[in-house]
């Protein structure tokens, strides 16, 4: 993934790791951090910074606040998702509302994507 890394965004990604949203903190500390795979927070991929990235599963996890549901946000997300999928990555998107109201289902979906062999046991 190094060939797609945009080093000019590294400083921004560090700042975003320090300033996670309430929903990002919940998902990270209450679920992702304890998984038996490496998950990166605020990972630079190309010209984008993704919320969470699991290289072993080739999966990006994005949490969407209200701006993602406005026309401009939807269009930007579509371009971003096409780029990431063009790299062979799966993109999982969850709204902040889903994190706050259906956390267990969100975690289950992520678990099935990043650890498919374990979820079938």
CATH-defined architecture: 3-Layer(aba) Sandwich
- What is the number of E strands? 4
Mean pLDDT: 85
In the CATH hierarchy, what is the superfamily? Answer: VSR Endonuclease
The CATH class designation is Alpha Beta
Q: Characterize the overall form.
A: globular
Number of domains: 1
Q: Name the strands of the widest sheet in spatial order.
A: 1-2-3-4
Order of helices and strands: HHEEEHEHHH
Largest sheet: 4 strands, mixed
Question: Could you write a compact summary of the structure shown?
Answer:
This protein is of the alpha+beta class and 121 residues long.
Molecular structure report:
With about 120 residues, this protein is α+β, with helices and mostly antiparallel strands. It has helices spanning about 10-20, 20-30, 70-85, 95-100, 105-115, 115-120, and strands spanning about 40-45, 50-55, 60-65, 90-95. It has a 4-stranded mixed β-sheet with strand order 1-2-3-4, with helices on both faces. α3 (about 70-85) links the parallel β3 and β4 (about 90-95).
List the main descriptive attributes of the protein structure presented here.
121 residues; alpha+beta; Endonuclease, Chain A; 6 helices; globular; 4 strands
Would you spell out the secondary-structure blueprint of this structure?
Elements: H1 10-18, H2 22-30, E1 40-45, E2 48-54, E3 59-64, H3 71-86, E4 90-95, H4 96-101, H5 103-114, H6 116-119
Parallel strand pairs: 3-4
Antiparallel strand pairs: 1-2, 2-3
